[in-house]
Amino acid sequence: MKNKFVEPDYLVDLVQALNRLPGIGLKSARRMVYHLLQYDIEGLEILSKALINANKNLIRCIKCNSFSCQQICQICSNPDRDNTILCIVETPSDMNVLESSKIFNGLYYVLMGKLSPLDGIGPKELNFEHLIERANTDKNILEVIIATNFTAEGETTAHYLSDILSINKNIQISRLSRGIPSGSEIEYIDSNSLAWAFIERKKTKISK
Amino acid sequence: MKNKFVEPDYLVDLVQALNRLPGIGLKSARRMVYHLLQYDIEGLEILSKALINANKNLIRCIKCNSFSCQQICQICSNPDRDNTILCIVETPSDMNVLESSKIFNGLYYVLMGKLSPLDGIGPKELNFEHLIERANTDKNILEVIIATNFTAEGETTAHYLSDILSINKNIQISRLSRGIPSGSEIEYIDSNSLAWAFIERKKTKISK
């Protein structure tokens, strides 16, 4: 970046470092830097320390592959969780959404990505070995729910995982259901979702 | 903030530190943190270093009061600039805008704020002494242009500065002109700006 303003180098470096964050343009980055320097030096120090601490102390949970401060994360080490069901998600954010919905009380495995051959991301890059080993050696697991996204890459990942995990006949493999979102009107649903809702329709009980 | 997700403490600390930045909500902050941890650890380290460097090395220029790595900043130490005119602005961002417009080649003084009695910001908090001393002891200065914003606080600041600086009879005090922005249509101008454009109208040359 050629700097069109006469600004001190260290200030420009900080602007560029913030500009690297997702969703932060040059203008917002510059605004943040001036805000920190003019009004919130304490905030600057807090951010600086938080970055160092996160970089130094956050590791991957050896069981679920998500971020953790301990070898085994809070969810994986919680004895109240149902250790017979393992839910596979793409990212920690997906796990957070499931957690806040309180619909699931089993354990997770976080892929930290999805299969994306065009970007050079295959089973090796996502360390599927680790997941397969986890699913096959943990004798408690009876069911694996694949909760990858319903995008092209997410579906590819789900198919692939379903294939390799179903070699183990002791485990039931399932996938989240597709259909019409709760609370929505059929008039406004895209035709793709509507098609899936028809294909995967469920029988209702018939009163006799 | 009560954390509704089961997330490691160091991760939550970083989310909160980023949440403190202007324009960054909790959701964006969390997205940034996961982005850094999953895909851009290098970016995390760069940001961390940039913050430390900025905090350690950025000082205020002793002449213009803006941020600088040296005692006297690049603009103030540039011999090609017109040292007879001093332009007073509220913030370094205002200075940047003037610089990029290339309309002004004199020197600056950055107030780093504006008079705002309701927030407890008076002449003392903005260190007006420093500006007055600068204007009165620098014998090169012939004109001071007050370029504070045309908001209530900016106008108050301009009036106040104009009063105290005009005690020195050797200096011409001026203020940026008010009026209709270049390129705009009268139909869409707010009545306040229109009123000022009438009050501060200029005589045009009359052909004889």
From TrEMBL, chains A, B:
GO terms for biological process: DNA recombination; DNA repair. The keyword Transmembrane helix does not apply. Residues 84-181 form the Toprim domain. HAMAP family: RecR. One of its GO terms (molecular function) is zinc ion binding. InterPro entries: DNA_Rcmb_RecR (IPR000093), Rcmb_RecR (IPR023627), Rcmb_RecR_Znf (IPR015967), TOPRIM_dom (IPR006171), TOPRIM_RecR (IPR034137). NCBIfam families: recR. A zinc finger (C4-type) spans 61-76. The keyword S-adenosyl-L-methionine does not apply. May play a role in DNA repair. It seems to be involved in an RecBC-independent recombinational process of DNA repair. It may act with RecF and RecO. This is Recombination protein RecR. Keywords: DNA damage, DNA recombination, DNA repair, Metal-binding, Zinc, Zinc-finger. Belongs to the RecR family. The gene is recR. PANTHER family: RECOMBINATION PROTEIN RECR (PTHR30446).
